[in-house]
Amino acid sequence: MPYRDSLIIALLLLVMLASGQDLYADLNSGASRLHLVQEGVLLLTATLLLGWILLSLRRQKSEIDNLRSALAEAKSLKLPDDKEFQDTRHRLSALISNQFSSWDLSQSEKEVGLLLLKGLSLKEIALLRGTAEKTIRQQASAVYKKAGVSGRHGFAAWFIEDFL
Q: Which residues form a coiled coil (predicted)?
């Protein structure tokens, strides 16, 4: 769980605890209804917000697990044993690696570039890499700029256009 999420959860728990204690003390001391309602609304809001965050984190973890599972399944697919296919595959891999180096991509940009070529969305790449989608968007833009293309389609086409 990212540090930011942990901090927000801790703060919400603190708000819930303090608000709950204050509400209990106010009930015993005869505070006004308006004040009790305000405290109750604060406690309810913090509780709902905490629940929403925890549910979002659970959904995000499930998406990451599904993506990793799909990638593992794709990696385990039986590829043709045909020597020509294997040679072509290795040459394409070497071409991509050499081109990434000639474009002077950083290691992160290379990883993002490969995942883009594999067809993953920016959101999926962000989930897999544990970074913000905005970061992946910036890295993808840097890859496209260094490659001299205008976007994902031009990037993929750069590698396969001449083979079709």
A: none
Q: In the chain, what are the domain boundaries?
A: 3-76, 83-163
Reported as a single tens digit per residue, the pLDDT across 5-40 is 888 889 989 989 988 898 888 888 888 888 889 888
The residues near 92 (Cβ < 8 Å, ≥ 6 apart) are 159
- DSSP state at residue 162: G
Within 80-161, residue ranges assigned H as helices are: 83-102, 107-117, 122-129, 133-147, 152-160
Question: Which pLDDT tens digit goes with each residue over 135-160?
Answer: 999 999 999 999 999 999 999 888 88
Three-state SS at 148: coil
| CATH dotted code for 83-163 | 1.10.10.10
